[in-house]
Amino acid sequence: MATAKKAPSLPSPNVSNARRALKRRSRGPTGPASGGGTKRTPSPTGGGQGGGLRERKKQKTRESIQRTALRLFEKHGYEETTIEEIATAAEISPSTFFNYFPTKEDVVLYDAYDPVAIRMFLERPKEEPLDVGLREVLKNLAALFESDQRMILARGRFFFEVPALRARLWDELERVQLLILEMLAERTGRSADDFELRVAARVVTAAILEASKEWMQSNGRHGLAELANRALAVVESGARLRAPTGAKPRTRRRS
Q: 113-238 has which CATH code?
């Protein structure tokens, strides 16, 4: 396997990093997202992705490398596939691979839909309740996922099946939670250090994770938007769980 040149490591999760990432990732073709009404749903590589021609080319290259890598992982296995093989199939050099991804794990961890989700949420009407905005964004994302369903399901499987990726899962959840926290802070005008806001972001992250897992375990048969709505409904109900009608309570066995 090629030796990685000194690539910058991914930033450790903290509020400052999330704030900078939010501003950077939410920029659209006309600058930072405003609080106006909803706009055309962009695709990760579509013309609506901002940052100029050079940045769009880099984005397309990054996603092309990821798609190539996932295809090889599915065919040969994650551990069995080398970075040299990915580079050859993607028609790049190994050094170019490391320009885009610090490690092989990062080619799976990378999520092209992060900036899309951020812009969708920040472009919702300011007067709209947060729960309504979240549901609309998740519904629009689910529709967008349909064209990439196979790749997204493959990413999910590798997350839970490959030990090296499972070891990175907590850091990934922290990153997502901090991005949600910053989006909520941006919309509400509250500090990202606010205790209640941090709890809300954590709970929403967990709800979305469980909906995503259920969707992946069903191999996409259950609708992601429906599962996300069910998960958020549990959150909104305060998780007041009751036994199913007619179910008998469990009794503890005596030893």
A: 1.10.357.10
